[in-house]
Amino acid sequence: MSQLNQMELQNLRHMIGAHETAYQKMQTYAQQSTDPQVRAFFEKSAQSAKTTKENLMTFLG
User: What is the pTM of this model?
Assistant: First the structure.
């Protein structure tokens, strides 16, 4: 894997942070939902954001 330049590293960190924020929000929305379909939607969205964040973090290693 090639080295990341400073701009790429900054962008990667920004995307990781954005996906962490999305994960936290979707988790909160899921917990507050009373409709099972809405809860499932937010839980799926949260999991997707978490998976994407974890995938992006592999570029830092």
Answer: 0.89
Q: Which of 33, 57, 8 is nearest to 19 (CA)?
A: 57
* pLDDT tens digits for range 4-27: 899 999 999 999 999 999 999 999
As a whole number of angstroms, the distance between CA 40 and CA 48 comes to 12
d(CA 59, CA 9): 9
Tell whether the model's pLDDT for residue 2 goes beyond 90: no
For residues 48 and 30, give the distance between their C-alpha atoms in angstroms, rounded to a whole number: 13
Do residues 30 and 42 make contact, with C-beta atoms less than 8 angstroms apart? yes
Taking a C-beta distance cutoff of 8 angstroms, is the pair 30, 46 a contact? yes
